[in-house]
């Protein structure tokens, strides 16, 4: 059976790719990355390096034009500063709205792109690295278990070929993602998480903070920030 | 309230656009068309003409690269002939599979693009012109009521802002779509349905046959084939 994996070059989706390769073999896995207008290209470079490491076919698309009207702080057209605090701290100020780094329906769009590619290439599973820390408090509503199940149903019905979404971490926290990845010897030194595009991760944005905690919880040093 | 309408330049989506403009006013409606690699550009030209007629903001994207691995008979990379028969006749031969003009998860992808644009622009409704004739017998699984409801749920949950899908014709046939459109004085002479890209509609492909029947059922001549 063939599978496609949404790969952002970060910890969660790279671990997902490792799970898919472990189950299906590299020849049966496609890795898919999408540029959506981020302020930097570090994630895409990391996703390419990871695909190269695992020797899987890698596909990339540029969907930046779709997000040009968005005020999301991650996007290059916006000067808005990327918050230098944890998601929990941001949510305290957001009054139930998604955080400023939420990209409008990005994950739903990427899953739909993956569905189109999957059908064309005979894949039966789409791997999606959403995890519980990202959906907590509705920070990223398109990472929740409920959203993922609804999207699974839509893709399953709309594909006409029994396509399914596999989201192995949707009810696990990031520390558990890293735990699974360490068991699978995931090359975390190739991954990139930081929202800023510096030479080294900033260590202060929401995703840097989350990443550090996840490695600490496993008692190991994050090889991505050495 | 603002709304976005998926517009292909055909009968159904143009009627949807008329419904949205009737409800929200032209200033509050965005029309969205996507090129996906069709063998001709007639549909996009029609969608532009319709948006111009209604004086709504029109957005276009080119997502052709996403469908380059597909063997769908509508796409320019495939020599496969577009069937010259009704969907019912095609389904008799397809053994439960979607028809050869099904574009892999196209409508799910377009609805996701619409969701991203809607959130960025403060739209609360996405109009989608799917109707019951297209989903009958699973010809186009991404036109069914069940699919639309699942997609509605995914978009509603994943958007974090209460975004909804309006599919006013999902349980109506094409004749009923045309009936509503005639009441709203839809400029059907501007629309294009035929899968072929000739000077005039071929009159023989699935969508030409469906269109003719829908106008005949309303006792009027189709102004799009004069």
Question: How is this structure best summarized?
Answer:
Chain A is α/β, with parallel strands linked by helices and 226 residues long.
Which short descriptors sum up this protein?
12% strand; five-stranded parallel β-sheet; Rossmann fold; 226 residues; homodimer; alpha/beta; 5 strands; 8 helices
Structural class of chain A: alpha/beta
* CATH level-3 fold name of chain A: Rossmann fold
Could you give the order of the helices and strands of chain A? EHEHEHHEHHEHH
Cα Rg of chain A: 16 Å
Largest sheet of chain A: 5 strands, parallel
Count of extended strands of chain A: 5
Can you describe what's shown?
2 copies of one chain form a homodimer. The first copy, chain A, is of the alpha/beta class and 226 residues long. Chain A has one domain: Rossmann fold (3-Layer(aba) Sandwich), CATH 3.40.50.620. Helix content of chain A is 41%, strand content 12%. Chain A contains 8 helices and 5 strands. A 5-stranded parallel beta sheet of chain A has the order 3-2-1-4-5, with helices on both faces. The longest helix of chain A is centred in the middle third of the chain and has 16 residues, at 106-121. The first copy, chain A, is globular, with a radius of gyration of 16 Å. Chain A binds chain B through residues 61, 65-67, 69-71, 97-98, 102, 104-109, 111-113, 115-121, 138, 141-142, 144, 146-147, 150-151, 153-155, 157-161, and chain B through 61, 65-67, 69-71, 97-98, 102, 104-109, 111-113, 115-121, 138, 141-142, 144, 146-147, 150-151, 153-155, 157-161.
